[in-house]
Design a protein that fits this description.
Chain B: This is Mediator of RNA polymerase II transcription subunit 20. Chain B: One of its GO terms (cellular component) is mediator complex. Chain B: Belongs to the Mediator complex subunit 20 family. Chain B: Pfam families: Med20. Chain B: Keywords: Activator, Nucleus, Transcription, Transcription regulation. The complex is a heterodimer. Chain A is built from 9 helices and 6 strands; from the N terminus they run H-H-H-H-H-H-H-E-E-E-E-H-H-E-E. In chain A, a hairpin with a 2-residue loop joins strand 1 and strand 2. Chain A is of the alpha+beta class. In chain A, the strands form 2 sheets. A 4-stranded antiparallel β-sheet of chain A has the order 1-2-3-4. Chain A has a two-stranded antiparallel sheet with strand order 5-6. Chain B has a domain of 159 residues. Chain B contains 5 helices and 10 strands. In chain B, strands 1, 2, 3, 4, 5, 6, 7, 8, 9 and 10 form a 10-stranded antiparallel β-sheet that branches. In chain B, strand 4 and strand 5 form a beta hairpin. Chain B starts with 8 loop residues before the first strand and ends in a 10-residue tail after the last helix. The chains are: A alpha+beta, B alpha+beta. At the A-B interface, helix 8 of A face helix 3 of B. Bound molecules: zinc ion (ZN). Zinc ion (ZN) binds next to loops of chain A.
């Protein structure tokens, strides 16, 4: 019964209240039954009326009595929906099939988890707001207040400049080919082919890399209509993992005043995957961990290790 | 067990479906696994399945590879008759491979078999020489493993294991990685880098077709074909 007390329901009163409702309903039924039957045969008309009225009064009193009783009990029952933190869903704990369906405990877990998530998201957002390095246009505008002499905004570089930066990077890494295209207006999309290992699609906004997706060398990078497919993930777990790490790298390499350095650093980092299948983990010395080769590359040393070995 | 204990191994690359040859080339490696002392072929296969399942590999249906032998009929005075092998692989249900011994190799539509029947005045089917390998297909992460029982005239002759690491297109690059994987379920039976790779020019990068894989199966089958059936508990 501990659970019952927790949710603020007096079960005893609850069951009494249910019987009271039943009693009330039957007394109300009796009122209408007697009204329907009308006056019963008696010797005198007076006797008939008298009898009918007293019966009617008696029935109404019974209704009144039952209603009062119900009102009294309903105060005892308590108000579970407001006293419980989970509101009405807390009543799930009263479900007698609880033993078979772990719905209530799962609900509690989810509740805790979402609370935690909200808390951490709050912390993260307050931390991020203190950083001066911003990515999006709005935040760039906000930081401009602090640094009045911000460049005309690296987000509005002429396409020619972007082309030059990319072709210079391309010349730096002979084992990497970069194809630049502008399928949607001025923003460039890069298709980077690294040796015979992988292909990466980088969606740019000016010189900022907005999004990256990495696929196998033998996987399709074009969708059926012949356009670069910037959405579908790789079929291979190893490249899904590399995509995750590359996204992390995009967030790591940030230098808003020198976007070309950022692109170059990212490409240098990406290039370290050239020996993805040939390098053992620098931490544990093995090639495979859970069926995956060392997919992590340190941002500074470019050292290869398994995702699980890097901490 | 003489020949059964020797390992034959070859590697190649192959597409998963003939229609999309560039979508899923990988790198394969077949080997002939020795049957453990005092165990039957089936027991050894079961043992391999168990080991793979312990690795949490997921079973994904079955596979088969078969091979029929044809003798070239005709004026081959003095010389031994040339052999033609016709092979099928369940990975490529729409295709059929025809290979001359040591000679050219062609990939054809599956109804090539019908053509062979029409050509029986030139090529005679060597009945009883049909070899096939059938078994289960397992997926573990990006690896594809096929454990097959090699049978010839309905007697089990050995076990073939094909391992493919799908994300990598250059066989030599992921050899060490594959070796480590194979060690995890084959123990010490893992061979050295097969000579097929070192012999190949241009960084081991073969065209995206299945001929390499099938050539390896063919070599494996030839080995099995030559091997004597030894009476005893090890081979059934
Ligand atoms: Zn490791």
């Amino acid at each position: 019964m501990a659970d019952v007390m927790n949710v603020g329901v007096n079960l005893e009163a609850f069951s009494q209240a249910i019987s009271a409702i039943q009693a009330l309903r039957s007394s109300v039924t009796r009122v209408f039954d007697s009204l329907k039957d009308g006056m019963k045969n008696k010797e005198t008309l007076e006797g008939r009326e008298k009898n009918f009225i007293s019966e009617f009064q008696e029935n109404l009193q019974a209704v009144n009595r039952d209603l009062n009783e119900l009102e009294r009990l309903s105060n005892l029952v308590g108000r579970p929906s407001e006293s419980h933190p989970l509101h009405n869903s807390g009543l799930l704990s009263l479900d007698p099939v609880q033993d078979k369906t772990p719905l209530y405990s799962q609900l509690l877990q989810a509740y805790k988890w979402s609370n935690k998530l909200q808390y951490h998201a709050g912390l993260a957002s307050s931390l991020l707001n203190q950083q001066s390095l911003k990515r999006s246009a709005n935040q760039m505008g906000a930081s401009a207040k602090r640094r009045p002499k911000v460049q005309p905004s690296a987000l509005a570089l002429p396409p020619q400049y972007v082309d030059d930066v990319i072709s210079r990077i391309c010349r730096m890494f002979p084992d990497m080919t970069i194809e630049l295209s502008r399928p949607n207006g001025t923003s460039a999309v890069l298709l980077v082919t690294l040796g015979k290992v992988l292909k990466a699609i980088l969606v740019m906004r000016s010189l900022f890399i907005d999004r990256t997706i990495v696929r196998g060398f033998n996987e399709n990078v074009y969708s059926e209509d012949g356009k670069l497919d910037i959405w579908s993930k790789s079929n291979y777990q190893v490249f899904q993992k590399v995509t995750d790490h590359a996204t992390t790298a995009l967030l790591h390499y940030q230098l808003p005043q020198m976007p070309d350095v950022v692109v170059r650093s990212f490409m240098t980092w990406l290039r370290s995957y050239i020996k993805l299948f040939q390098t053992p983990c620098q931490r544990c010395g093995k090639f495979l961990q859970d069926g995956l080769p060392p997919t992590w590359r340190d941002f500074r040393t470019l050292e290869a290790s398994h995702d699980t070995c890097r901490q | 067990m003489g020949d059964l204990n020797s390992i034959s191994l070859d590697c190649g690359r192959k597409p998963e479906h003939p229609e999309e040859t560039h979508s899923d080339v990988g790198r394969t490696c077949e080997l002939h696994v020795p049957v453990a002392e005092g165990k039957s072929v089936q027991q050894t296969v079961d043992l391999l399945h168990k080991k793979l399942e312990q690795l949490s590999a997921v079973k994904q249906g079955s596979f088969f590879v078969d091979c029929e032998t044809y003798h070239a009929a005709g004026p081959t005075s003095g010389q031994p008759p040339k052999l033609l092998y016709v092979m099928h692989n369940s990975e490529m249900p729409l295709s059929c491979m025809a290979m001359f011994e040591g000679g050219p190799c062609l990939t054809a539509d599956a109804n090539f078999d019908v053509l062979m029947v029409k050509l029986k005045s030139h090529f005679q089917n060597a009945k009883g020489h049909k070899v096939e390998s059938r078994g289960a297909r397992y997926q573990y992460c990006d690896f594809l493993v096929k454990v097959g029982t090699i049978t010839m005239s309905s007697s089990a002759r050995g076990i073939s294991v094909e391992v493919e690491y799908c994300p990598c297109v250059v066989p030599g690059d992921c050899w060490n990685l594959m070796k480590e994987f194979m060690q995890s379920f084959l123990g010490s039976n893992v061979p050295e880098l097969p000579s097929v790779f070192t012999a190949k020019p241009e960084g081991l990068y073969a065209p995206a077709d299945s001929t390499d894989t099938m050539t390896q199966y063919l070599e494996l089958f030839s080995k099995v074909r030559k091997q004597q059936v030894v009476p005893g508990s090890t081979v059934r």
